[in-house]
Amino acid sequence: MAKVTMPQLGESVAEGTIGKWLKKPGDTVAKYEPLLEVITDKVNAEVPSPFEGVLKEILVEEGATVPNNAEIAIIETAEEAGGSAAADAPPPKAASVATEREAAPSEPDTGGPTVELKTPQAPGGAGGAGPAGSDEGPERAAPERPATEREVPERAAASAAAPPTATATETPGNADARMTPAVRRLLREHGLTAAQIAGTGGGGRITRDDVTNFVESQRTGQPVNGQSAAAASAPASPAAPAAPQSQSAPTTAPAPGASRAAAPAGQPIEFPAGADEVLVPMTQMRKGIAAQMTKALLAPHAYVQMEVDATRLVAFRDRAKRDYQAKEGTSLSFVPFVVKAVSESLKRNPTFNAHWSDQGLLAKRRINVGVAVAVDEGLIVPVIRDADQLSIHGLNAAIADVAARAKIGKFKVDDFGGGTFTVDNTGYLGTNLVMPILNVPEVGIVTMEAITKRPVVVSTPDGDVIAIRSVMNMVLGVDHRANDGAGGAALLRDIKAWLESVGPNTPIY
Predict the structure, then answer these.
(1) Who's near 307: CB < 8 A, 6+ residues apart?
(2) Is 2-102 a domain of CATH 3.90.1150.10?
(3) How many Cα atoms sit within 13 Å of 16 on the Cβ side?
(4) Where in the chain is the domain with CATH 3.30.559.10?
(5) What is the pTM of this model?
């Protein structure tokens, strides 16, 4: 029997929560077919099956949090199933047409027994952290799986069959409803109980959206996506009183004379009447980012900055983008050019394609470039693997793919972990000078700032003239334990030279 283990979703992520099993015991599983969803502080990633065969047993239930490399399921591989069938086959003399018709099928019954799932109590502390185990993703502290097409009409029919009126003492939800630890923490942050929330997930499961919709219905007094504002009057258990209509739910007693309220994280901050301050609780993603940034600042940072003349790059991209859009169905951005320049330059500056460890510099053969992606609740850094082996088109397609999945919070296990260098694109927001923080244990990170037109002195055969050029600042962050300023300047100089050499003969494919 082959054992499936919990994968590591990011360098600094030490554990994961089973969000949903996509297969049940007895189901046939193809190699690399999605087997389950795993939730970390930053992302909700689908985990592919590492084996082909039959899912024999689920060892960890939905909602449970386990460390990396823990055994979570058992799969009977195709080779084992074949050997078992051969051993159980009757002798040739006993075989007959009737026997063959009555024999058990070689394929397993895909309608195997169901497993009763129980959600354990949420852990008290915050989980692992890190932008590579986020997020945001292209990352959604604990995004839930969206409803299937089959579930939607079932829910609509259930809603239509519900009584038209309800008393204020009735509770819309189930106090024993299943949910992930992240959703349990969200309930606690808002002073709510499961009995107050009508779960819309499979089997009445309470999702993150159910909680946020309920909180919004309390704030506005209007139903939001099926969550009724009248549920706010439902009695709560003594251990967790319901938040009042004004969303005033301080986690600590305010100072005398002060008024404090709690605001839902990730939403516009509104000050209730009489409140002079609002506490915005941290989401799991923000907790992960905070922990990773605190760890990163233990590394001594040094910075190198250069201006890149992007005039030829801008002209090349402007000429190519219309045909590229028509052919590929997606836009051609500047990011793949920078990632390509970084990948080629890291070959000549290998001490930056590395991780720092207590024993020294751990150089990496493969060039795996992380691309920082902003999401609603923070930042994630999915990884483009073997970036130096990809064309500009290949890089553009890979970046567009992960950015699209970041918007819906759907990632693959391979999107995170193993990054060797990071590119941070804040320029699309108009920045001109950002001092990036290292994505430890990586030892280098580079920013691409806004491309702006500036008057520049240009040398010509007839002398110096002032010309309008497209210029982009780039800032390289260096782990000073691994490299010095001179090494950083050499790397940034090579990146600059590659970008300035872009011209009509630069291949896209």
Answers:
(1) 471, 472, 473, 474
(2) no
(3) 31
(4) 294-500
(5) 0.58
List the one residue out of 66, 157, 139 whose CA is nearest residue 373: 139
The predicted-structure confidence for 34-61, as pLDDT tens digits, reads as follows 898 887 766 677 888 888 999 988 999 8
Q: Report the alpha-carbon distance of residue 70 to residue 299 in Å, rounded.
A: 31
Residue-wise DSSP of 449-491:
EEEEEEEEEEEETTEEEEEEEEEEEEEEEEETTT--HHHHHHH
What number of other Cβ atoms are within 10 A of residue 430's Cβ?
A: 9
Compute how many other C-beta atoms are within 10 angstroms of the C-beta atom of residue 271. Answer: 14
Q: Which residues of 394-405 are buried (b: 16+ CB within 10 A; e: fewer)?
A: bbbebbbebbeb
What stretch(es) of the chain map to CATH 2.40.50.100? 2-102
- Residues with Cβ within 8 Å of residue 17, at least 6 apart in sequence: 38, 39, 40, 63, 64, 65, 127, 142, 180, 181, 182
**Residue 297, both tokens:** 């600042």
CB within 8 Å of 320: residues ≥ 6 apart: 332, 508
Catalytically annotated residues? 480, 484
Q: What is the pLDDT of residue 168?
A: 40
Give mean pLDDT, residues 105-125: 36
Pairing of strands 411-412, 354-357: unpaired
Torsion of CA 6, 9, 11, 15, to 10 degrees: -50
φ and ψ of 66, to 5 deg: -135, 155
What's the distance, CA 439 to chain centroid? 15
Task: Dump pLDDT digits (tens) for 470-490.
Answer: 999 999 999 999 999 999 999
Q: Buried b vs exposed e over 126-151: b needs ≥16 C-beta within 10 Å?
A: ebbbbbbbbbbbbbbbbbbbeeeeee
Question: Residue 452 pairs with which residues in a beta bridge?
Answer: 471
Task: Please report, to the nearest 10 degrees, the dihedral formed by the alpha carbons of residues 256, 258, 259, 260 taken in order.
Answer: -100
* Pairing of β 65-67 and β 444-460: unpaired
Q: CA geometry: angle at 127 spanning 124 and 133, to 5°?
A: 165
Q: Calculate the CA dihedral of residues 424, 429, 432, 434 and round it to 10 degrees.
A: -40
Domain 294-500 architecture: 2-Layer Sandwich (3.30)
CA dist 339 and 324 (Å) reads 18
Per-residue pLDDT tens digits for 168-198: 444 567 877 877 766 777 787 777 888 888 8
